Amino acid sequence: MTTLPETSDERATALAALGRTRELLDPGLRDWVGRLPEPVARVASYHFGWTDSAGRPGAAPAGKALRPALVFGCAEAMGAPAAEALAPAVAVELVHNFSLLHDDILDGDTTRRHRATAWAVFGSSAALLAGDALLVQASRVLTEDPLGRARTVTGLRWLAEATTRLIEGEQADIGFEERAHVSLAECLAMTERKTAALLACACALGALWGGGPPERIEALRRFGTHLGMAFQLVDDLLGIWGDPKVTGKPAGADLASRKKSLPVVAALDSGTPAGRRLAERYGASRGRSAEAEPAEIAALAELVSEAGGRAWAEEAAEREFTRAMESLRAAEPAEPAAAGLAALARLACRRDH
Amino acid sequence: MTTLPETSDERATALAALGRTRELLDPGLRDWVGRLPEPVARVASYHFGWTDSAGRPGAAPAGKALRPALVFGCAEAMGAPAAEALAPAVAVELVHNFSLLHDDILDGDTTRRHRATAWAVFGSSAALLAGDALLVQASRVLTEDPLGRARTVTGLRWLAEATTRLIEGEQADIGFEERAHVSLAECLAMTERKTAALLACACALGALWGGGPPERIEALRRFGTHLGMAFQLVDDLLGIWGDPKVTGKPAGADLASRKKSLPVVAALDSGTPAGRRLAERYGASRGRSAEAEPAEIAALAELVSEAGGRAWAEEAAEREFTRAMESLRAAEPAEPAAAGLAALARLACRRDH
Predict the structure, then answer these.
(1) Which residues does chain A have within 8 Å of residue B129's beta carbon, measured at their own beta carbons?
(2) In A79, A166, B196, B260, which residue has its Cα 20 to 30 A from B306's Cα atom?
(3) Which residues of B touch A152 (CB under 8 A)?
(4) Would B184 be classed as within a structural domain?
(5) How many domains does chain B have?
(6) Which residue stretches, if any, does this entry annotate as coiled coil (chains A, B) (predicted)?
(7) pLDDT tens for residues B271-310?
C-alpha cells in the first residue's frame, strides 16, 4: 500500500501514544473486568489475552486499544489530563470487546489475534453471556465515575446510541452475505455504523470529559467518523492485498470467505465488464477444490482491481483521511495532543508495516 | 396447589393493576422499540407479540408485565403518580425481554407463550442482536427521561447491577445442567440472581422514581427479592405439578428436560433414600423411548415428593411470600397502591387458575 505516507517521527509518536494508553487503561480495565462474576470474568480475561484457556496468567498480544487512545487524546486536546478520561476509555473498550465476542459467534470465526476465539474455547453460551456482561459493565463504569457526574448522562446516551448503530451495522453486514446484490451506498452506510460510530463516540466522549465546548466536541466526533471510514477502507484493502506476515491472516482472506467488503462491492457496483465478470464468479466459485482456490482468489483480486474497486477504495481512504485531518484542525486541539491524534490516525490507516 | 390462598377481591385488584400497567406501559414500550433500526425492531416486535413472523400486525397474547406493574405500584406506594415512573417501567421490561431473547437461544427453546421463539423464526444471529439492542435501549430510556435527571445515574447503576446478576444467574443455570451435583444453597443463590434481582430492581426503581427515602426504597427492594424467590419456587412447582391447561406447558415439563429446578435439587440434596433413588434415575433415564417417558416422569415426580422436595418448596414459597409481605409493610406504602402490590404478589405466586 503506498497511500497515506507517514514519517518515522510520526510513527514513533503514535506508538508512544498507544503504549501510554495501555499503561493508563489496563489497571482500570482489569479492575472492571475483575468485578464481574467469576465464570464471566474468566471468559473475558481469556478474551482480553490476560489468561490462557485454563485461567493461568498469560501474556497474549493485546489489541491496539485504538479507541481508548482516541478518548485520552481527545481529552488532552481539550486541555484536560488524559487520566481524567479513564472511565469513558474503559467504557468504549468494553463495548468494542462486547462486539468482538458476539461477532465472533455470529461469524463463526475460530481465531482472533492468532488465538482461538472465546466461543471456540468456552462454548457459544459462555461467550454470549460474557459479551452481555461487558456491555452492561460499560454502563457501570460511567455511572460510577466520580469525575463524570455532570456529563455522565450525556455520555451514557452517546455510548448507547453508538452501540445501537454498531448492532445495526453488524445486522446489516450479516444480511449482506445472504443477498445477491449490495449497493456501494448500502455498504458505506453499514461501515459508518459498524466501524465509524464507536470511533466517533470515543472521540466525542474524550472531548466531553476533557471539558470541550459543543462545537469542538462535534468537530472531534467528525474526526472519529472520517477516521473510522478510512480505517475500514484500509482494513478491507488489506483483507485482499495485505501481506499475510503483517496482517496475520492468509493472503486474500476476505476473498476466500467471499466477503462483500468495500473494494469488492465497489467493483461489483462499477458497471464495468470486469465488475460483471466478478459478479458471475463471486460466490459461484466458492467451494471449489482446495487446489484450485489460490488461483481463483488471485483471479478474483485481479477482477476487483480491473473493475476499479482497488483504486476507488484507495482514493476513498485518502479522501476520508483528509477530511479527518480537516475535522481535527477544526477542533482547535491543544498540542502535543493534536500531533498525537494525527499520528494515531495515520498509523491506524497504514497498517502495512 | 393449595398454598397462598387469595380472595376473589384480591384477584380482581391484581388483574386491574396488570391491565392498567399494559395501558400505561405499551405506548412507551412500542415507541422505544420502534426507535430501533428496522431489522432489529422487526425481530423485537415479533418477540413482544405485536407482529407475526411476516411483520403483519397481530395480537399474540402479551406477557403479564409483572415487572413494570411493580415499578408503577412502588412509585405510587411512595405517593407519586404511576405515569411518572414510565421510564424505569419500560427499562426493566426491555431488560427482561433482552434476557428472554438470549435465554431462548442458549436453552434451545423453540416455543414461548404458545408461539415459536424469535431465534426459531429469524435465526439465532438476528435474535442475539435484537437482545443486545433491547439491552442498550434500556439505558437510553433512562438517559432520556426528562423526569429522571437527578436519579438517572443511580437508576442506571441499579439496573446495570441487577442485569449483571441476571447474567450471572443464567450462566450458573447453564452450568448446573452439565454438573452431576448441585447443592440447594447454590440453586437458591442462582435463583436470587436469575429471577429475584430484576424484580427487586423493579421495586427499587419504582420507589426511587416515586421519591421515596432510602430506607423505604430498600424495604421495597427486599419486598421484590422475597417475591422473586417465592415466584420462582411456585414456577418450579408448576413445572412439575402444574396443570398443562393452565401453564401452557406439557405436564412435568421440567422433569422431561431433566431440569435441576428447586424442588428437584431439594430432593436430590435431601439425604433421603428417595433422594438417592432420584439421583440414580435423574438424567440416566433420559432419552428412553417416547412410550416409556410419561411413566418415567410420573415416577420421578413421585420421588421428588417422597424425598420432601415438594413440601420443602411449598413451605419455602410461603416463607418467602410472608417475608415479602413484611417487607412491603415496612416500606409504609400509601394506599391503594399497597393493596395493589399485595394482590399482585399473591397473583404472581399462585398461578393455578
Answers:
(1) 102, 106, 167, 170-171
(2) B196
(3) 153
(4) yes
(5) 1
(6) none
(7) 999 999 999 999 787 766 667 788 899 999 999 999 999 9
